[in-house]
Specification:
With about 350 residues, this protein is of the alpha/beta class. Helices cover about 40% and strands about 10% of the residues. Helix 1 packs parallel to helix 11, helix 9 packs across helix 10 and helix 9 packs antiparallel against helix 12.
Length: about 350
């Protein structure tokens, strides 16, 4: 396992984090504890959860494991708050009122007096951003969280947050958790540059594109059985009916398969190795239903692609930006030589 700093902070985390959205839903308590044990045995030290994952069950399972194992000091622990945890009007959002309740409830479920990273799980169009960020600052000062981060923010939202924090002299944010993989690269146009400009490390979720990059889904037959799309073929951005008709998705899967077969490794390991070496990446969040799946993903630790393999995947997965503002002519307008010339 390799390690990097948590964004611009001094805290060190493994380049692969253990995501726990399956805990309490697709993975029972015993299987979840087995995953946590195996992950730490492999050298991992970064566990990511959220209060909304299985309505608090994920945090409860992690808290039970922490109490049983005594491993709290071995884990950099991250959670999030924003989405509904009840039916009352104030049971969601990033208001000071809801975040206070959400954080305290998370700490109780996790059996800890603090989390290392607390993230706003998404933008809240109702709550003033200053209110949300001032809560993070107060939580840092109270010792309930060590760092603040964002998840699912767009580029302008991220920049607004960082500018406000800078003006107020508050503790800087350290991470952004976006969806990012070979099938979802549009964040490279604005979001990643904004994160780099402000020293935020990326914690990509869905690194395997909801299973598409593992090669387990046929383009010609609707999935069935015990898989995410087998349970729901129209599931969100991973929808089989949409992606199976997309030629770019086919090209990417073919390129990943070709490299995997040439190396004698799994397609998942190729997709993870491509992502972990992208600019600004701090840690890639792994999410597995079973320990067997986790073991395969963890085998990507220390794996790096050649420049030729990376270029092959870059070309196949290019999302095809229009000429302006993200394509060639637009990019050229934002570049310049050191020495001026009219040539």
């Amino acid at each position: 396992m390799e390690y990097r700093t948590l964004g611009s902070s001094g805290t060190v985390v493994s380049t692969y984090a253990l995501g726990t959205m399956t805990f309490g839903n697709e993975t029972d308590e015993a299987g979840s504890h087995e995953q946590l044990d195996r992950y730490l045995e492999a050298g991992g030290n970064f566990v990511d959860t959220a209060d909304v994952y299985t309505a608090g069950a994920s945090e409860n399972i992690i808290g039970g494991w922490l109490a049983k194992s005594g491993k709290r000091d071995d884990v950099v622990l991250a959670t999030k708050g924003r989405f509904p945890m009840g039916d009352r009007p104030n049971d969601l959002g990033t208001s000071r009122r809801h975040l206070r309740q959400a954080l305290d409830a998370s700490l109780t479920r996790l059996n800890t007096d603090h989390v290392d990273l607390y993230q706003l799980h998404s933008w809240d169009p109702i709550t003033p951003l200053q209110e949300s960020l001032s809560f993070l600052e107060d939580a840092v000062r109270a010792g309930k969280i060590l760092y603040g981060g964002l998840s699912n923010f767009t580029g302008w939202q991220l920049q607004k947050a960082c500018d406000l924090i800078d003006r107020r002299g508050w503790s800087p944010l350290v991470t952004l958790q976006p969806q990012y993989n070979l099938l979802v690269r549009e964040i490279e146009w604005e979001i990643i540059p904004a994160a780099q400009e402000n020293g935020l490390g990326l914690l990509p979720w869905s690194p395997l594109g909801g299973g598409w990059l593992t090669g387990k889904y046929s383009f010609d037959e609707e999935p069935t059985g015990d898989t995410r799309l087998g349970d729901d073929p129209n599931r969100g951005v991973e929808s089989w009916h949409r992606r199976s008709q997309n030629q770019r998705v086919r090209d990417v899967v073919d390129a990943v398969r070709e490299i995997a077969e040439a190396r004698g490794i799994s397609m998942a390991q190729v997709a993870l190795a491509w992502l972990v070496d992208r600019p600004a990446i701090t840690s890639v969040i792994l999410g597995a239903r079973t320990t067997k799946q986790l073991d395969d993903n963890l085998a990507a630790a220390g794996l790096h692609l050649t420049p030729e393999e990376t270029a092959q995947l870059d070309e196949a997965s290019d999302p095809g930006a229009a000429d302006y503002p993200y394509g060639g002519p637009g990019v050229d307008q934002r570049d310049r030589p050191i020495a001026g010339t009219r040539g």
